[in-house]
Write a structure and sequence with these properties.
With 111 residues, the protein is mainly alpha-helical. 64% of the residues lie in helices and 7% in strands. A hairpin with a 5-residue loop joins strand 1 and strand 2. 0% of the residues are buried. The model has no long low-confidence stretch (mean pLDDT 77).
Length: 111
């Protein structure tokens, strides 16, 4: 076992939650009850996929360079759309023209 891998396992073994995760991962490996990430990626579709862990946490897996897919996922995300709606209702922003005017005046005074 590499030294860095040994140190990593020692850190995991100090945390009770991580102990369970590590125990489950070792059991899955020993039983062959897993799929290698390379195999999973080769089988997956082109769309982002939701992955659920044994403790019901959910993750999204998508290609990093797939901007169009990310946009579609955000459009379908109700919480994100609500955030945007709330943000659009906010008042009190500063117009770019006002900022430019203030900067020009400041630079003119310093010259």
């Amino acid at each position: 076992m590499r030294r860095s891998q040994q140190r990593e396992e020692e850190c995991w073994e100090q945390d009770p939650c991580s102990q369970n995760d590590l125990r489950d991962a070792r059991a899955a490996y020993e039983n062959g009850d897993y799929i290698a990430i390379e195999d999973y990626l080769a089988q997956r579709s082109e769309r982002p996929e939701r992955i659920s862990s044994a403790d019901a946490r959910e993750f999204m897996l998508a290609e990093a360079d797939d901007f169009d897919a990310e946009v579609e996922a955000l459009r379908a995300n109700q919480a994100f759309q609500e955030f945007l709606s709330q943000r659009a209702l906010r008042r009190g922003g500063v117009a770019l023209e006002n900022v430019e005017r203030e900067l020009d005046a400041l630079l003119a005074r310093q010259a």
